[in-house]
Amino acid sequence: MQSRYFTINDYPQGTPARELFELHEQALPALAEDEVRIRNTWLSVDPYMRGRMSGVKTYIAPFELNAPLEGAAIGEVIESRAAAFPVGTKVRHMGGWRDIAQLTGDQLEPLPAFDVPEQAYLGVLGMPGMTAWTGLKRIAEMQEGDNVLVSGAAGAVGSLAVQLAKAKGGTVVGIAGSPDKLEWLESHGVKAVSYRDRDATELTEALQAACPEGFDVYYENVGGTCLEAALNTLRVGARIAVCGMIARYNEATPSPGPSNLAMILIRRARMEGFIVFDHWAHYPEFLGEVGPQVESGQLDYTETVEEGLERTPDAFLELFEGANRGKMLVRL
Amino acid sequence: MQSRYFTINDYPQGTPARELFELHEQALPALAEDEVRIRNTWLSVDPYMRGRMSGVKTYIAPFELNAPLEGAAIGEVIESRAAAFPVGTKVRHMGGWRDIAQLTGDQLEPLPAFDVPEQAYLGVLGMPGMTAWTGLKRIAEMQEGDNVLVSGAAGAVGSLAVQLAKAKGGTVVGIAGSPDKLEWLESHGVKAVSYRDRDATELTEALQAACPEGFDVYYENVGGTCLEAALNTLRVGARIAVCGMIARYNEATPSPGPSNLAMILIRRARMEGFIVFDHWAHYPEFLGEVGPQVESGQLDYTETVEEGLERTPDAFLELFEGANRGKMLVRL
User: Fold this and answer.
1) How many other C-beta atoms can be found within 10 angstroms of the C-beta atom of residue B155?
2) Cβ B245–A261 below 8 Å, yes or no?
3) Which of B290, B324, B275 minimizes the C-alpha distance to B133?
4) CA distance A2 to chain B (A)
5) What Pfam families does its record include (chains A, B) (predicted)?
6) How far apart are the first and last CA of chain A?
7) Min Cα separation B267/chain A (Å)
8) Do B110 and B89 form a contact (C-beta atoms < 8 A)?
9) Are B46 and B74 in contact, with CB atoms under 8 Å apart?
């Protein structure tokens, strides 16, 4: 059987070009003991993948050049030599960026049994959802009634963070760019603030207008101007959960950091970076808490879907243009 | 009785000029009920006082223009209408920057009973010592064997932080400037690294050479290049206690922050600002732990002493020139 997959042929500087990604095809070898073959139905593209294209080991090894890229995916077992995963089993795994994956049993997770569309396990009940929950609950230690600020608030992680925060009360403010994102936020009871055409001073003023008392929690997805403005609006004892700094991921040369970092001292604030994979042991706790909210429709989630394996690189690149609302997915 | 005291006549931009400080004299009113008169013997000057000269409320109110400045001081009660503080009592209080202070009983602390020179309660057993201990123990949660980096390592706080860290094992590295400071550090088993004539990249390399495994704890007194280099040398799960950023205190316009703040994310590090006054309830715990070490001579502390009330502004300004080793004091 043939598998089609994407590779990269170089570690790019700056914004990756579409040409970086090459589609290849190979014949898969016969299944070894404990291996399964999976027809992927949904592929995930995520901002963290940019880090794996840098050629430098950060918290995760870089992608290997000219080898199949990796990423979360959902698929169905179509051939199996692993007793735990008979043909027909729906699974989640990291063999994305391809149509047919061949993996061993220890690389697979069976999908949980909530009555939700299967791709939810790549988004609201997958890594982005778990990331939103972990940042608020375990890193920022959000308390009932805290005022919460979220940047990238209409993205895959941010759109869940604002809703989880909102459910616990307090003023929740989301920073986003396009009018439809701002509208989505407002329709969910979140005060929406645009970063567009605003420098750090202007963004600070807009945040202060939205929440004059300041923020107890800042959920950071973006960095840059958002971080600088957020630092100006912290309350004493505020906690910043640093989930990502997407504004910086494609920079060829580093930009200066915020000039007001001393606010960490003045407000006795705590800023902590986290990687959701470190917290994966708490996935069942997350699932038990958030799964029923998704099943009941209480938690709204949005998907932006590209169609067909060929569009995977485009879907990925659109993440950095702010083109997606909610989780960016590829349907095969 | 006359009291001589310093005032400032303006909130300065940038490095304060010596002319900012004016010496005045006034006749003190007769003592009211519960008031005492204190002849100060030692005055403290500290970097945080620069913040009180900014005219902006940060974590503490600004100094009032043309009113006596405030700061920690040690003195002896020479006249008393407060039963708890009879004549001859040695006290610590915030009526510094003057020779004779007139205060109420609730503004005084009797000196603890350790067999140490009285000015130790302004330094190693006072605010700077408590700051070093709080940052390491309560903020950075230093563990036995942690590798610890301290900037401003020969200053009032840093020189105690390196020794407290050293006593718990692990590699301890101190950043300082002048040769005698570096020598002092080395003589205490601390690896000394100079920041002089080094940019962030060069300082990073020097720190990596001193401690190739990287740091679990960074005790931040300085900011600027030191912070940028330190961020490059953190281990996963590192904790940064932000005690001060003296490199920035005299800046008229803010400088950009570190361009590598994303290391917080990559290393899943935590950065937390603190103000020692918030932790003052733990002062007895600190005193019980560190007092005996000072009494026995186990903990070495250094003082830089200026003589006479008139020199108080000079002593203060020298803090920003890196002129002091250990605690800067004025003896009256």
Assistant:
1) 30
2) yes
3) B290
4) 37
5) ADH_N_2 (PF16884), ADH_zinc_N (PF00107)
6) 17
7) 7
8) yes
9) no
B250 Cβ under 8 Å from any chain A Cβ: no
Q: ipTM of this predicted complex?
A: 0.85
For the segment B266-280, what is each residue's pLDDT rounded down to a tens digit?
Answer: 899 999 999 999 999
Asked if the C-beta of A269 comes within 8 angstroms of chain B's C-beta atoms, the answer is: yes
* C-beta atoms of B268 and A275 within 8 A: yes
Specify whether the CB–CB gap between B9 and B20 falls below 8 A: yes
Q: What are the structural domains, with CATH classification, of chain A?
A: 2-123+302-331 (3.90.180.10), 127-277 (3.40.50.720)
Q: Which residue of B has its CA nearest to A261?
A: B257
Q: Which residues of chain B lie closer than 8 angstroms to A248, CB-CB?
A: 262
Taking the C-alpha atoms of B160, B164, B167 and B169 in order, what is their torsion angle to the nearest 10 degrees?
Answer: -110
CB crowding B201-218: b at 16 or more within 10 Å, else e:
eebbebbeebbeebbbbb
Q: Helix, strand, or coil here: B32?
A: coil
Query: Which distant-in-sequence residues (6+ apart) come within 8 Å of A115 by Cβ?
Result: A295
Tell me which residues of chain B, numbers 276 to 295, contact chain A at a CB-CB cutoff of 8 Å.
278
Of B262, B267, B270, the CB nearest to A270: B270
Q: Which residues contact A258 (CB under 8 A, 6 or more apart)?
A: A200, A227, A228, A231, B256, B257, B261
Q: How far is A73 from chain B (nearest CA, A)?
A: 24
